[in-house]
Amino acid sequence: MTTPALLPLSGRRLPPLSLGASAFPHHRATLRLSEKFILLLILSAFITLCFGAFFFLPDSSKHKRFDLGLEDVLIPHVDTSKGDKNLGGFLIHGQGHDEHRHREEEERLRNKIRADHEKALEEAKEKLKKSRDEIKAEIQTEKNKVVQELKRKDSKPLPPVPLPNLIGINSGEPADLDIREKRNKIKEMMKHAWDNYRQYGWGHNELKPIARKGHSTNIFGNSQMGATIVDALDTLYIMGLHDEFREGQEWIDRNLDFSVNSEVSVFEVNIRFIGGLLAAYYLSGQEVFKIKAVQLAGKLLPAFNTPTGIPWAMVNLKSGVGRNWGWASAGSSILAEFGTLHMEFVHLSYLTGDPVYYNKVMHIRKLLQKMDRPNGLYPNYLNPRTGRWGQHHTSVGGLGDSFYEYLLKAWLMSDKMDTEARKMYDDAIEAIEKHLIRKSNGGLTFIGEWKNGHLERKMGHLTCFAGGMFALGADGSRDDKAGHYLQLGAEIAHTCHESYDRTTLKLGPEAFKFDGGVEAVAVRQNEKYYILRPEVIETYWYMWRFTHDPKYRQWGWEAAQAIDKYCRVSGGFSGVKDVYSSSPTYDDVQQSFFLAETLKYLYLLFSNDDLLPLDNWVFNTEAHPLPVLHLANTTLSENPSYR
Ligand code: DMJ
Predict the structure, then answer these.
(1) Catalytic residue list contains 118
(2) Staple 597 to which of 20, 46, 434, 534, CB 3.0 to 4.6 Å?
(3) What is the pTM of this model?
């Protein structure tokens, strides 16, 4: 329907009526007087209507729902006995006094709203007077507040658990002056490594001591997660370097963030970060380490989402997407990687009361138990999609090593209750002795590598840790062969010492042969490097603890001196490329495990045995001490409230 007032009076269509200023001047000259009069009439009617609306329309605020926190103000005033009702936020009032009171109340509220608006307007005006930089700074402050608040919420304390019996956190200071001096020298080396990392690589994963800048490798993805800080913490603590420890703690508290778009090695992050954080927590009692360890573990869990539950080697900490190393046999996961999670994951379940971690590692164990093992040996590769072995390579060095170590340590860490783990260890070691351990023509006991039914007579520096493992597992061995395993440990220690002693620098090569007239010597150029690894010194320390034969301290001291002489540079410590060369070149990397392991084992070698006694502490594969858990016969999954 068309409004009669808009009908054209002259038979000509008028342009649509607009009250905008430009509508009239254009047509004014052409309009007749009567038309002008009618238009004036319409205009005055419209203005009257507007005034009427302004004065006579009912007050809409009466029907307004007060949902900006005003209900809190209004509702307490509602007296239901006098007929006021609160219907879902609308207020319907009674008559008389109540009406008067209500009007006053509304007036008060209107004033308040007006005052608030004026205040907001004033604030906005003030803001506009500020410079761009000032406004930016204010926004940043607000943002920081929000982040801090989120962090605070994220860091809410975990449920308290009774700490296990923490025995032997003491100075371990030796009485003997000579030994004390040696120990002080190791501490000084630690300080040199730390101070330089602090100065040139702080926050980066590792240090390039010659270029004097941060360094990282693909195991940490492209992250800057301060691997050296986390790995070094417990060594600093044990050595009594408390200022340095506090610096590290502060950095972790403020900066260690795991929501990074970075693809990291599940194994390395577990042994260095989770292991390091847990050890720092147990030693110092500082909650922040426990919280960070649990946060990080949550980020690793998606790696277990594979068809078999055998985790991927790598996981993106942000997306949770996992994959395997391109070089590993047909997309396989690595035995030493998925088999080296047990200790840390059991502790995580212990500390959180959440069996999820425990269940993940027990699932791996169950799966391995069901599988056929060629000659009783565990191959290094297992496909997480099919659940089948990859290439039939077996090693007690790289790719296999810490899997065997963790079977033994799972048993020790459970206060020797986890007999299933002990049995798996005993079975595996029997097969290894039968197929991989041999004596060279010169009488050196070595552990070779099994490749498709053939024994390669080559031993890696990594394999040298096994001397300590045999000694540690001697007590409790099957058929009471404790003496035999202690002896085997001593023989491996001797062979590995020979591999050091037969070099120019008195530092061990990465791999050495027992073949073609060669004994404990590296043959290939790319096996002649020493990258500050700990395994040989680790074995000396275990052998020292179990035998107190002074030769182990002597050998450890030789290694410490060689490291100080050939690997020390003004910017820290570096690996060397050829231990047979009298003028070595550096690889320019200070590995985080040098601070976590090499220097820690050396320090312990020159300390009293009551510092972290082996009856109460089990060292993870990165030398992070975790206490024995007295869990009695309860399995964690059966009783999640075992804490
Ligand atoms: C360490 O990170 C761990 O000991 C791991 O188990 C293998 N070796 C390196 C150091 O050599």
Answers:
(1) no
(2) 534
(3) 0.77
